[in-house]
């Protein structure tokens, strides 16, 4: 596998054109072989587009990466796979190369999925470096866009640090072999970079104030949140906890112009969809969810077609009969039931929930055989978006697609009643939330409890209460029997459970489990198929990071294995 269009630098300028993913920078899809000059807008768009797009013509053909199915090489899809299929959340029965090893925590440094994400992230870093070397100027607009490119480089490097620990490190294009950076040193670099571009440094390259730039572009709140995410995991990355710093930047995001999506600032009261569901729908750029989504991976059914991204999140757990079912109990402007989930794609229940995840909602109760609206009512929580009809709770056999509940969090329906943008009905408009404000609430509450003997203060309780109120958590819910309004105390364990319910299937779980010492190297917390056993068995702590791919080790003598 290799990065395409990276050498020489002039060739990058020829080959990084695409139909814009940043909505104020629309450009034509020009033949890359006929464009030889650096174009600042093309490269700026491609930096953001790397979150979703996989090549020059999308959804397939002329891929950025060689030697892997192009749809599989989608960045959000790969991040989701690494953080979901390797944990207590999701299981995939497909036998695609590399997939069974993720399900069973038995991967090696030749795993094609691990390799693909590594190169996708390095591809993003390279584009950011190329942009920063060529986008020069002292005007305010250029400085702001340079700050955004630095943020996006930090965002890609964050995932390299989190997933691979000690990646190659370059801040400029070079023909030399990249040196390897150690995890703690990369943390220090990212900390300095992010604090500079939110205005705490002296470079003068500063991100825009929160919500003062077009939706889809990084602003200061994105910087606050990436810092908060780094600091809450700092003990994993550096050996030193940074709870106070994590809380500080999470609170800065909470006190910015972003706000949770609720009835007060969304169209939920007219559409019938819950505010929580609006976050994961085809019009989440305008239905009120945009108030909460700080960094989306932008999708458009016509302009950003991919077999990864939100289409994967929607189609992978779906089965064909769902297209004709009234899943949500909502009606259109004419009073007709809104049926299906907004795309013609259904990938045969490829992804199901492991029972440990389902039990965070159902507790020890037996779920009814029903659709999303039935289980939301049964559980007493809008986040219980499960399809249980003909599904069993436990995955006894990996290849039995009717074992394991279906967690159908994403859809491509438009709550305002409009149709999706793709005329054929396949490709989706649902923006994938890479960072949303609810994460700040949970980081703030977790750090509050960690700094106060394992119990939230009134402030921490208020953070959790806000999320449960938005989800309409009711007295008699199946997991703790407590309504949101009745909440008066909350322990650190309660916070962990709220992480499970609020961010289920959003590609964050592995990170959370490692921070809470519930992943590799421990035996107290287990899930089915953990370590390759149906009952679950411990696996080595070295698997808390993914291996540097064998192809990188062979190509660059500076890079040493991050574990053996």
Description of the molecule:
The chain has 564 residues and is mainly alpha-helical. It is built from 20 helices and 6 strands. The strands form 3 sheets. The chain has a two-stranded antiparallel ribbon. A two-stranded antiparallel ribbon has the order 2-6. It has a two-stranded antiparallel ribbon with strand order 4-5. It is globular. The two termini are 22 Å apart.
Order of helices and strands: HHHEHHHHHHHHHEHEHHEEEHHHHH
Task: Give the strand order, joined by hyphens, for the main sheet.
Answer: 1-3
Radius of gyration: 22 Å
Q: Could you say which structural class the secondary elements and strand pairing correspond to?
A: mainly alpha
Number of helical elements: 20
Mean of pLDDT: 91
What kind of sheet is the major sheet?
2 strands, antiparallel
Percent helix range = 25-40%
């Amino acid at each position: 596998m290799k990065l395409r269009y990276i050498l020489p630098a002039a060739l990058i300028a020829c080959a990084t054109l695409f139909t814009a993913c940043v909505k104020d920078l629309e450009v034509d899809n020009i033949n890359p072989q006929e464009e030889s000059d650096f174009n600042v807008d093309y490269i700026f768009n491609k930096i953001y587009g790397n979150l979703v797009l996989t090549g020059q013509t999308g959804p397939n053909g002329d891929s950025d990466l060689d030697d892997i199915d192009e749809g599989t090489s989608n960045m959000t899809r790969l991040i989701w796979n690494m953080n979901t299929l390797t944990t207590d959340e999701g299981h995939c029965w497909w036998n695609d190369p590399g997939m069974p090893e993720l399900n069973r925590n038995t991967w090696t440094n030749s795993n094609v999925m691990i390799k693909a994400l590594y190169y996708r992230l390095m591809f993003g870093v390279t584009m950011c470096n190329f942009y920063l070397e060529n986008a020069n100027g002292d005007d305010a607009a250029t400085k702001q866009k340079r700050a955004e490119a630095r943020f996006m480089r930090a965002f890609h490097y964050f995932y390299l640090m989190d997933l691979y620990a000690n990646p190659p490190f370059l801040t400029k294009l070079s023909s030399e072999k990249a040196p390897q950076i150690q995890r703690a040193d990369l943390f220090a670099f990212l900390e300095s970079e992010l604090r500079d571009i939110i205005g705490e440094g002296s470079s003068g390259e500063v991100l825009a104030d929160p919500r003062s730039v077009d939706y889809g572009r990084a602003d200061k709140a994105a910087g606050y949140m990436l810092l908060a995410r780094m600091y809450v995991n700092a003990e994993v990355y550096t050996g030193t906890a940074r709870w106070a710093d994590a809380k500080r930047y999470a609170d800065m995001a909470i006190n910015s112009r972003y706000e949770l999506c609720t009835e007060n600032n969304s169209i939920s009261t007219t559409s019938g969809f819950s505010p929580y569901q609006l976050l994961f729908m085809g019009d989440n750029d305008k239905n009120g969810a945009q108030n909460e989504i700080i960094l989306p991976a932008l999708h458009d059914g016509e302009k950003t077609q991919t077999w990864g991204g939100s289409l994967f999140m929607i189609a992978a757990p779906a089965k064909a009969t769902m297209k004709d079912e009234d899943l949500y109990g909502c009606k259109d402007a004419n009073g007709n039931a809104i049926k299906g989930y907004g795309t013609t794609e259904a990938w045969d229940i490829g992804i199901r929930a492991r029972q440990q995840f389902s039990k965070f909602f159902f507790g020890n109760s037996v779920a009814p055989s029903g659709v999303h609206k039935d289980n939301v009512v049964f559980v007493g929580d809008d986040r219980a978006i499960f399809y249980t009809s003909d599904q069993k709770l436990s995955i006894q056999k990996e290849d039995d697609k009717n074992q394991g509940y279906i967690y159908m969090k994403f859809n491509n329906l438009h709550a305002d009643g409009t149709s999706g943008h793709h005329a054929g009905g396949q490709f989706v408009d649902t923006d994938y939330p890479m960072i949303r404000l609810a994460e700040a609430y949970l980081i703030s509450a977790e750090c509050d409890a960690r700094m106060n003997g394992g119990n939230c203060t009134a402030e921490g309780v208020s953070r959790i209460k806000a999320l449960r109120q938005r989800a309409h958590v009711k007295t008699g819910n199946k997991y703790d029997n407590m309504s949101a309004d009745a909440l008066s105390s909350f322990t650190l364990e309660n916070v962990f459970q709220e992480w499970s319910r609020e961010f289920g299937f959003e590609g964050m779980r592995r990170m959370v489990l490692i921070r809470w010492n519930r992943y590799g190297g421990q035996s107290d917390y287990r899930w089915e198929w953990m370590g390759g056993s149906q009952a679950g068995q411990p696996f080595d702590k070295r698997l808390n990071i993914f291996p540097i791919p064998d192809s990188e080790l062979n190509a660059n003598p500076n890079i040493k294995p991050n574990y053996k």
